[in-house]
Design a protein that fits this description.
single chain, mainly alpha
Length: 55
């Protein structure tokens, strides 16, 4: 059985970009753009679909 981790000694960053705030910020901005794009696309699609059923 493995012993529990009790110290941060010897710990290293797993991601190669963890020490680069610009890359982390870029990924954040990209995820926000994708999320907002999906919301806008869904809104437009639902409005267009609803128009087809109005009298």
């Amino acid at each position: 059985m493995a012993s529990p981790i009790t110290t941060w000694e010897g710990a290293e960053a797993v991601f190669t970009f963890a020490d680069k705030p610009a890359v982390v910020f870029g990924i954040f901005v990209l995820s926000v753009i994708v999320t907002v794009g999906v919301i806008i696309s869904t809104y437009k699609h639902e409005n267009h679909s609803y128009i087809d059923y109005q009298e």
